[in-house]
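Example with several molecule types.
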Amino acid sequence: MNGNWKRGAMHGFVLIVAVSFMAVLFAGQAMAQSQRDSLAQTPPMGWNSWNKFACNVSEDLIKSVADAIAMNGMKEAGYQYVVIDDCWQVSRDENGFIVADPQHFPSGMKALADYVHSKGLKFGLYSDAGTKTCAGRPGSQGHEYQDALQYARWGVDYLKYDWCNTETRNAQEAYSTMSNALIATGRPIVFSMCEWGTAKPWLWGKGIGNLWRTTGDIGDKWSAKITWPGGGCCQYGMLEILDMQVGLDAFAGPGHWNDPDMLEVGNGGMTTAEYRAHFSFWALLAAPLIAGNDVRSMTPEIKEILTNAEVIAVNQDKLGREGRRVRKDGDSEVWVKSLADGSRAVILLNRGQADADISVNWDEIGYPNHISAKVRDLWAHKELGAFTGSFKAKVASHAVVMVKILP
Ligand code: GLA
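Resulting structure tokens for the full complex:
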């Protein structure tokens, strides 16, 4: 009797401890997830070195880019994060801490972060969930908490985390581990998951990352599918990336965004009209607006695209809805994004070779056809008048018309 009682009490005690432990664990996890989701309430805006400079990164480059963003109107337009992509890191020290390339970053990352901060901007770095980055530099696998600690000491505000050399690693585990490590530092660090959409991160990424790549890499082309040098698939043109966003809009919201990859605006492979279309779509998709060109030497046309306040306002709208395609008639398409004031941003896209008349009906964008609504052209910066039931425009080949429709 005595023995049974003791055994019972012991079992009860073990059960209580186990349940309490689980409760603390789940509460901790829920707290980490809500902390993660409280960052990037609107899609992050900034600049990243990869699309233009690839591995040619240095502290001189990053400083001059930060100077340019602070001076050329981009900072006022909302661009904030200056992010060094792959190739800033060379090795680990005897204690396992990551070492920045001393030749290209002689003053060290802390000094560089301080410089970027002194311009009123934020500082970002890149790493990888595998043993090595995509360019073969040391990855973070097995060093997640140590790397997060180092980033926080340096003053990092944003981490892009890639997926090369991960072998059989589980994506949700890998990204959760680094997300938790970043949160454990106590420093708010936006977490950009670059998993290329393979494990459908939109299904599980909320609360782990603030943004997740939905596709392979973008190339500076209107339309293309380019295999990698090793034969692997693929780098995509802007339209191929756009098509891959169809159906993903429900998964985005404040703190957790679909990322169709960084901007190619200004890198030379598209026409000005095509770049305007690219930027319009990234705004409508509530995508991160991460410029990827040489912002120190832009033509006025490119600067005008990247700093169009009316288009950026669509991207940064507080409602945080991603836009979606509501009609596809061959080469003519209609896309819509709902905005906080009840209005709609609408893109009429012409993928074809000849000019086309494209119309949008109110019932396609959630309004009854009998109401009248004001239409404003967001590239011409002009009120086009009031329309009832529908709006039609001539759209040039490989171009968009982007309007705001307000009942
Ligand atoms: C991958 C990513 C790119 C870039 C490179 C760097 O391809 O998808 O965005 O970060 O690696 O090596």
